[in-house]
Specification:
Layout lengths: L23 E8 L5 E6 L6 E6 L10 E9 L8 E2 L6 E15 L3 E8 L3 E13 L2 E10 L2
Antiparallel strand pairs: 1-2, 1-6, 2-3, 3-4, 4-9, 5-6, 6-7, 7-8, 8-9
């Protein structure tokens, strides 16, 4: 993915006002336990972060990726890289930035990301499937670049 031009605070990069209450944050961490994957963590204003496990990083193909939702994670992961407690491997930051929630419901989540690597919209729709790790969501990423 190519880097996008910087986003001016208070806009989505297209000159219009951000949707949602407050700009929040997101992080994508590479996690090597129990098998290599990526954790997408989104600050939705709750005490802990919404977290989704991705087998691969989304691209701009508009092809959906099925991702399980994990238990909510501590907010400290927004800034953390290194070993995970309990012998659960380690994490390395792939991207981080501002996340603006434009739609939230029990079945749908739409987030505008303003990071270095991810600068666009993540749309998540809950499926009826269940994985051993949690409910399964359909994720589509659309880049603004």
């Amino acid at each position: 993915m190519s880097e996008c031009p910087p986003i001016v605070a208070g806009t989505s990069g297209k000159g219009d006002a951000n949707l949602g209450d407050l700009p929040r944050r997101f992080v994508v961490l590479e996690h090597d336990w129990p098998s290599p994957h990526f954790d997408l963590m989104i600050d939705d204003g709750q005490e802990r972060l919404r977290t989704f496990a991705l087998d691969r990083l989304p691209d701009n193909t508009s092809e959906p990726v099925l991702v399980p939702e994990l238990a909510r994670h501590r907010r400290s992961y927004l800034d953390y890289e290194g070993p995970v407690s309990g012998g659960r491997g380690s994490v390395r930051r792939i991207d981080a930035g501002r996340a603006t929630l434009s739609q939230t419901s029990p079945e749908r989540l739409r987030v505008v990301l303003a990071g270095v690597r991810f600068n666009g919209t993540i749309s998540l729709e809950r499926t009826t499937d269940q994985s051993p790790r949690g409910p399964v969501w359909r994720l589509i990423y659309q880049s603004d670049c």
